[in-house]
Amino acid sequence: FQTTQKIRAHPHVGTRVPIIAVTATTTKGTREKCLQAGMDEYLTKPVYLPALKSTLAAMTSPPQARTAP
To answer: Is the Cα dihedral 27, 48, 39, 4 positive or negative?
Structure first.
C-alpha cells in the first residue's frame, strides 16, 4: 500500500502507471482498501489466466474504450 501511494504521489507526465494488486487476502474490504490506496485493480490468488487477460486488456485499452469494472 505504501509503495502504491509513493508511486501515485510522483508526477508522471502524460501517463499513469497501472498497478494491479495480486493478493491471497480475500477478506471483506480488501479490494476497496487497494483501490483507495491508488491501485487500479485487484486480483486474488490463485490468479486465473482469463481474469488476468481481461484485467490487462481493460487496462491497456484506450481510455475512451474502457468501461467501469
So the answer is: positive
- Distance separating alpha carbons of residues 58 and 41, to the nearest angstrom: 10
pLDDT per position as a tens digit, 9-68: 887 767 888 899 999 988 999 999 999 999 999 999 999 999 999 999 988 877 655 555
Task: Write the CA distances from 59 to 5, 16, 27, 28, 29, integer angstroms.
Answer: 19, 11, 24, 24, 22
Torsion of CA 57, 21, 32, 9, to 10 degrees: -100
Partners of 21 in the beta sheet?
42
Structural element, H or E, at residue 20: strand 20-23
3-state DSSP assignment of residue 44:
strand
